[in-house]
Structure formats: C-alpha cells, structure tokens
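Whiteboard transcription, Tuesday session. T.W. wrote the structure tokens on the left side:
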C-alpha cells in the first residue's frame, strides 16, 4: 500500500464520529468505550505517515500521543485522583511535545527575549485562571498546566514568526496548541461551573482536532527528511 496511513486514519475517523455523536446525544457509556482508541489511532496514523520510528523526535512524539491516551483513560473515571492522574499524563505529554517542536522553533532565541516571552505567558495564564474562576487546591496545578499549554502554542508560533522552514507547518502546530488550550479551558469551566452535554461534546471535538493538528504538523515536519 503506497499510503499505509489511510487505513488507520479511516478507523480514527469512524471512532471520532462515534464518540462525537455519543457525546452529542448524551450517551456517556458509548463515548467512554470508544474514547481510549482515539489517541492510539492518531499515533498509528502518524507513524504510518512518517514511515519510521528511528528518529528520537518521532518516538517522543508517539510518547506524547500515548500519554494523551493514558490521560483519556484516567478522565473516564470520576473523582479527584483520576482527574489528577489524567492531568499529570497530559502535562507529561506536553513536555514531550516541547521536545519534538521546541528545539527547532526556539533555536537561537536569546535569554533576554525569554524573559519577555515568559512574562506574556504568565499574564495570559493568570487572566485565564481568573476568568474561569479557578481557586483553592486546583490553583497551582492549573497554573503549571496553563503555562505548559502556553509553551505548546509558542512552539508553533515561534516557527511562524521566525519564518523557520515551512510557515504553514508551524501554523498548523500553532492551531493545534490553541485548540488544546481551548479544550482544556472548557474542562476547567466544567470543573468549576458545572458540566453540560454540549460542553462535553465541544471538549472532545476540539481535543481530537488539536491532537490531529499536532500530528499533521509533525508529519509535515519530519516526513520530508525521510523521503
């Protein structure tokens, strides 16, 4: 098969549609049953499209995706502990994403420039936390996680602004980071302001779209080097 990624991509599309529809109609059981398959299918599609796991960056990418799968599984359960474990998995996944995209897009940024970048990130996270109403024991972990999301967005944005390679590839990564932040912001809103069927549907749509965009950006970034 000349395009081996098509088959896992089709399975991913079917699984995503089933999950989205189940979320939309409020069938939590079906949504929970399908959810654990989504990120492994994203990872399988990514590896099939790139064609190899030889490069360390690609292995780190797949690790980030599988950590997302673990986070999905933890978040199926209710309670503080599963939520904390899920959040930890996603945070670890973001760190692996940094190691995939960051060394390319951040290369050459001066220490004095990082001061301004970190200040903007901190202000953005603080504004988001205040707007959502995060407080109490969740404040510190959500602040750390929020900074991780800002770094993920900056991974792509730096590539666009600094005109590194193909700007459209970095625009895709940026959009993936923004959608990830939007999806997780909706989770925080549900946590502190109450859940709804529509919000749960919107969380999954934006989350899966974010993971697919990050995978697509990585495929565009690494596949040419292997052809």
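and on the right, the sequence the group agreed on:
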């Amino acid at each position: 098969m000349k395009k081996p990624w098509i088959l896992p991509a089709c399975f991913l599309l079917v699984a995503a549609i089933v999950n989205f529809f189940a979320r939309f109609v409020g069938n939590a059981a079906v949504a929970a049953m399908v959810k654990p398959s989504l990120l492994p299918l994203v990872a399988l599609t990514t590896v099939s499209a790139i064609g190899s796991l030889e490069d360390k960056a690609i292995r780190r990418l797949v690790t980030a995706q599988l950590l997302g799968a673990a986070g999905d599984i933890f978040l199926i359960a209710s309670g503080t502990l599963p939520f904390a474990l899920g959040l930890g998995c996603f945070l670890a996944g973001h760190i692996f994403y940094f190691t995939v995209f960051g060394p390319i897009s951040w290369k050459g940024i001066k220490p004095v420039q990082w001061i301004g970048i970190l200040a903007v990130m901190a202000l953005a996270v603080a504004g988001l936390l205040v707007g959502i109403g995060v407080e109490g024991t969740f404040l510190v972990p959500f602040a750390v996680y929020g900074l991780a999301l800002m770094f993920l967005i900056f991974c792509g944005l730096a590539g666009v602004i600094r005109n590194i390679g193909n700007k459209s590839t970095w625009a895709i990564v940026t959009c993936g980071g923004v959608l990830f932040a939007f999806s997780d912001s909706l989770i925080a809103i549900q946590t502190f302001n109450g859940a709804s069927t529509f919000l749960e549907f919107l969380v999954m749509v934006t989350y899966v779209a974010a993971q697919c965009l990050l995978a697509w950006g990585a495929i565009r970034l690494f596949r040419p080097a292997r052809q």
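Someone added at the bottom: The chain has one domain: 6-226.
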